[in-house]
Amino acid sequence: MSLVTQFRESRFWPMLWKEFIQMRRDRLTFLMMTGLPAVQLVLFGYAIQTDVRHLKTVVLDESRTAESRALVNVMVNTGSFDLVGAVSDRAQLRDAIESGVASAALVIPPDYERNIKRGRTAEAQIIVDAADPQSSSSAIAGAQLAALARGATIISERSRTAPPIDMRVRPWYNPEQRSAVFIVPGVIGILLTITMILITSTAIVRERERGTLEQLIVTPISKPSLMLGKLVPFVLVGYVQMTVVMGLGKLIFRIPTVGSFALLYLLTIPFIVASLGVGLLISTVARNQVQAMQFSFFFMLPNILLSGYIFPRVAMPLPAQWLGLLLPLTYYLNILRGILLKGVGIAQLWRPTLALSVFATLILLISVRRFSKTIE
Amino acid sequence: MTSVGASAPLADAVVTEGVRKVFHGGLVAVDHLDLAIHRGEVFGLLGPNGSGKTTTIRMLCGLLTPTAGRASVVGHDVALEPELIRAKIGYMSQRYGLYDDLTVYENLRFYATVYGLHGKARTERLEKHMEEIGLTALRSQLAGTLSGGWKQRLALACATAHEPEMLFLDEPTAGVDPAARRAFWTSIYELAAHGTTILVTTHYMDEAERCQRLAFLSRGHLIGLGTVKEILEHFKQPTIEDVFIELQKRDEGAAA
Question: A55-159 is classed in which CATH architecture?
Fold first, then answer.
């Protein structure tokens, strides 16, 4: 049998043709495929700001001197603090913080300038609303940095020498340190996970619920064609979503795309295969579409929390880091950020690629076996 | 018993020898089933719920593997050559197996293509087929919006577009109105007149009486086989319905 007839005999095309018609007609799926990328992108791109800057700050300046005003300027220049007003005493300061008008307050005591002039250590105080440790930590760091900088300037002025050390910080890959640059490539990974797992598993379970899966098994369609015909359309959808998110990310969030697109599309394959495997596995366990959705969300949650999509993995306790290693998204995020932001090649990415490939092979073997059993 | 050889052209359409099916958990759904269905016959399979009718059909279609025994369909062994059987049979289940979000024509086209029809031959066959069954006017309607009777006709059309040698119908008329049932049986007789062998299960006794031969199943066993006349004489009952009720009573007595 020639390859062409063999392919025709496998009945792959009619399956594909049918899937695309159904996909076009199913409004919910269509919406999830087109609307979801846009919503996710805007939601996560804009809303997630892990670096807290521009903390609203009031100043209680009891010194009222050139030195105290210089300190306020240095603080504001760090970018961590936005001046929203001045208060005249401690009670007003407490009021401002308790009412939420400000989340930080700078207190400069009356003897501030006098102490500097006499060569003594001048004290100043920064009060931070630290109920949310994440938002307060950058304020604390900013305040300490400002004090050091101001101190160095004063010393070098006093001794008429250049500052002994000048540390020049160079933030590579994301010089403005915008969260969106970190988050948006991850949106691609999350979207692919949702599409491949949620939409695929519900689509297969739907065929079983409707009795059409049974009907298909009685026809001469081969089992590989049945599975491929069901899965391949979603692979194409995944690539379209990915391209849309990268395009919008570049347009709206000015995401750098320095690496090779060809390499990114290529290394996406093992991730897609792994996710399809999970979707197929869920379809063999779930009895109906609602269950398939529940299983999918159950799998999605650790992906969002532990993969490093939003929260940096290095900050997690070790067991959480280990759990993260079991998720394909963890590896795929390395590939996404590596290629898009750093422009690295396969030489730097072979580890996550290998891990993904192993995961993809294993999960696909298991799920195809289980799926074959359920349709017999 | 008739020979089971794959090469014998006049072999019976269905032959089973000592077929048994045990499910996980030990439930014996079918046991010691010996059946022979002749070519071109309209054969009815009767029995109460859970008697093993659906399990039998599913084994003959290759959806289930028999635990023991041998079965052949259109000259091929179900265990050895299931893919050869699939191309020659049609199957219509209670659930119809239609895609609600495809149109009438798209459903037909899909199943016809899956059965290997292509190009001009497919178009001509489907146009003729729709004309015969009266689906032409509804061709662009979504299958999900059809009434029960039309869905049933479409399901039959999908199962027969490739002109199968043998047709399996598992409770095809459950839940449709009497007019649709009558029209459906007209189609079945037309198919049989063209040489298609038909195996049908049903709960309607008037339908059972339309079959050329009948088999009664009870708790997985074959407990009666023959023409309507033979069965009525054998069980000394006036109607098939009486036979059915009598057998069910006997069966319950045996189980108790």
Answer: 3-Layer(aba) Sandwich (3.40)
